[in-house]
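Quarterly update, task 2.4: magnesium ion-bound model.
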Amino acid sequence: MLDTAFFVRWLTATAAAVERDADLLTELDSAIGDADHGSNLQRGFRAVTASLGEEPPATPGAALTLAGRRLISTVGGASGPLYGTLLRRTGKALGDAAEVSPAQLAEALRTGVAAVAQLGGAKAGDKTMLDALEPAVEALGSAPPPDGSSSFPAAARAAAEGALATVPLQAHKGRASYLGERSIGHQDPGATSSALLIAALAEAAEA
Ligand code: ADP
Ligand code: MG
Ligand code: MG
């Protein structure tokens, strides 16, 4: 079972990955956007980390909804409301349980990712964060490895592969879509940060 401490570890590991890779995320966004994705997420996840310390959440659901609210209130760019919706809706789907199973988290994340698709109007192949998030949710939703190990590492691999697979795509949503065919040949910043989020899930499970 996954307790509140697991979810705090997940969010903290995501914040650390964003700090580590902020320059890369901004560099990717400078090729097909406005060069702020790293600093947007840095601002957002620093606020998340601060809030987790100031008002420690009592449940897994509360941890994710708190993080989602902070991202929405601190990140001005498209990614703030989108990641905020992802975490808020995933948290809401977990309800007020003190512990949740990996299967319940997989199902809740599916709901959260669907909410991102609805809010942003994007679908798989549009060269957005969904190109990493949807394969991750698929990997989490399929049967767990027979040896009893967790599906999180497979989800992390699926998300990283999904992010890489955005390189040859043309963007159909967000700022990158303004470039038309010139968006081809660059990795999507949001798909790249989504891969960090899912990798952090695997990290939190290892600890
Ligand atoms: P902004 O584009 O407002 O500067 P960011 O640079 O922080 O915001 O985030 C850009 C990322 O947001 C993109 O790389 C893409 O993955 C994601 N994104 C943008 N628009 C959408 C959308 N409509 N649906 C899903 N993801 C989107
Ligand atoms: Mg940007
Ligand atoms: Mg911007």
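Highlight for this quarter: The helical segments are 4-32, 37-54, 60-74, 79-94, 102-120, 130-141, 152-164, 189-206.
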